[in-house]
Amino acid sequence: MSIKLSKNLENIPPSATVTMTQLARELKNQGKDVVSLSAGEPDFDTPDHIKEAAIDAINRGETKYTAVDGIDELKEAIIKKFKNDNNLNFLKENISVAPGGKTIIYNAMMATLNPGDEVIIAAPYWVSYPDIVKLASGTPIIIKAKEENNFKISADDLEKNITKKTKWIIINSPSNPTGEVYSKAELTSLAKVIEKHPDLYILSDDIYEYLLYRGSEKFSTIAEIDPEVAKRTITMNGVSKAYSMTGWRIGYCAGPKNIIDAMRKLQSQSTSNPSSISQWAAVEALNGKKEFLKDWLLSFEERRDMVVGMINSANGLKCLKPKGAFYVYPSCNGIIGKKTPDGRIIKNDKDFAMSLLESKSISVVHGEAFGLSPYFRISYATSMKKLEVACNRIIEFCDELE
Ligand code: GLU
Q1: What percent of the chain has pLDDT over 70?
Q2: Which of 152, 205, 340, 364 has its CA 20 to 30 A from that of 289?
Q3: How far apart, in whole angstroms, are the C-alpha atoms of residue 33 and residue 13?
C-alpha cells in the first residue's frame, strides 16, 4: 500500500548536508577510508564544564517537561548574552528556545507564512532555508550573489526583489556555505532599504557569530544597527557551533512578542520543550568560561589557510579566503566538461561531488544544493591531518581528469 504524501513535502528534497554526511558515515561503516568534509559541525568535544552541568542536571532530577519554549534560567542567560555581545535589550517574553537553530527557523516560518508570502534568500544559502519556506507554504525568492562580491548581496539587489508579497528576508553572516561576513556598513545599507518597507520582517541567522578570524571586523547583527529594523527582527543563534554542541539540539532567538507567542503555540503542538538536560547545559555554555574558544579559533584559522592554499593549487579549482564560519566554497568551473579516468564526464558540481566520493572517498556538498553552481562546500571543521589527506586526494582527482 502506498500513502499519498503531503504536497509540501513532495516538493522538497531531503537536506543535502544531512544526506551527504550520512552517506559518508555509511561508507565509513562499510570499512571505506572516507574523509568527510560535508558535516557542518566542529570536531572538538563539548567542553567539560558544560558536560558536567548536564550531568548535574540529571542528578538533580531536571529530567521532566519544562516550559515549552525554555526554562527561565536559560532565557535569562540568553538575555544577558544579547545585552553583552550585541547591545540588544530583551525581556523573557521576547525569547524562544527550540530543539536546534533549524527548529527556530522552522517555527518562525510555520508561524507566520501563508500561501503566496515571499521570503528573500541570498544564494548561496544554507540548504534548508528555501525548503523550510516551502514547507510553510511560502515562496522563496532567491537572489544570486556573485563570487566577485564575495557572495554577498547589495542594498540594490535587495530593493529590486522586494514586492508587496515579501514577508521576510533571511540574513546569515558569517555565512554557511561561504564563510563570508557582512560588514557593519553593508548591513547598514541593507537596513536602510528594509526601513522603507514596514511590513518586511528579518530573520538574522547569527549561528556563526563567534567564529570570526583575524582581519575580520567585529561582528555586527542587523538588529543592533537600526532600532526601527530591530522591532521587526528575529535574531537567531544557538550553542551548536560555538560550543561544539550540535547533538544537544539547542537553538534560540529573540524578537517581537507576537511572533515569539506564535512560535510557542506551534512548539506546544509539535516538539514541546527542547531536552531539559540540554537546556541546563546551554545555561552553563552561555554563562560559563569561554577561554577554550581562543584555541578553537586559532585551529580553525590554521585549517582554513591550509585548505585554501591546497585547493587553489588544484587544477581547475579556485577558492576565496573567507573570514568566518568553518566553510569554504570553491569554484569547480575549471573542471566542468572534463572526463574522469573511467570515462565519466563531469557535467556539474553534483557530478564532481559524487565522483570525488566514489573515486577518492572524500565527501563534500555540491553547490547546487546551496543554490549557486558550479561550486562545492568544504567544511574544514576537522583535523589538519584529515584535511591534508582530503586536499591531497582532491588535487589528485583533479590531476587525473582529462
Ligand atoms: N548546519 C550544518 C550544515 O550545514 C548541519 C547540517 C544541517 O542541518 O544542514 O552542515
Answers
A1: 100
A2: 205
A3: 28
Determine the average pLDDT of the residues in 83-96. Answer: 98
Q: How far is the CA of 39 from the centre of ligand 1 (A)?
A: 6
Residue 335: all three cell numbers together: 573542471
Residue found by looking up cell 543563534 in the block: 237
* Mutational test site, ligand 1, from 25, 176, 370, max ligand atoms within 8 Å of CB: 176
Mean pLDDT score across all residues of the chain: 97
* Strand-pair category, 376-379 with 201-205: unpaired
Q: What is the DSSP string of 123-144?
A: ES--THHHHHHHHTT-EEEEEE
What separation in Å is there between the alpha carbon of 17 and the centre of ligand 1? 6
**Confidence at 1, pLDDT banded by 50, 70, 90:** confident
User: Residue 67's closest CA among 46, 95, 48?
Assistant: 95
Query: 75-82 contacts: CB < 8 A, separation 24 or more?
Result: 77/282, 77/283, 77/286, 77/287, 78/252, 78/254, 78/286, 79/254, 80/286, 80/287, 81/237, 81/286, 82/235, 82/254
Weakest-pLDDT range from 3-12, 101-110, 257-266: 3-12
Amino acid, single-letter form, for residue 18: V
List the grid coordinates of 42. 566542529
Q: How far is the CA of 32 from the centre of ligand 1 (A)?
A: 23
Cell 510553510 sits on residue:
136
> How far, in Å, CA of 67 to CA of 76, rounded?
14
Whether the CB-CB separation of 64 and 402 falls below 8 Å is answered with: no
Q: How many CA within 13 A on the CB side of residue 20?
A: 28
Nearest protein CA to atom 1 of ligand 1, as residue: 40
In this structure, are residues 363 and 38 in contact, taking their beta carbons and an 8 Å threshold?
A: yes
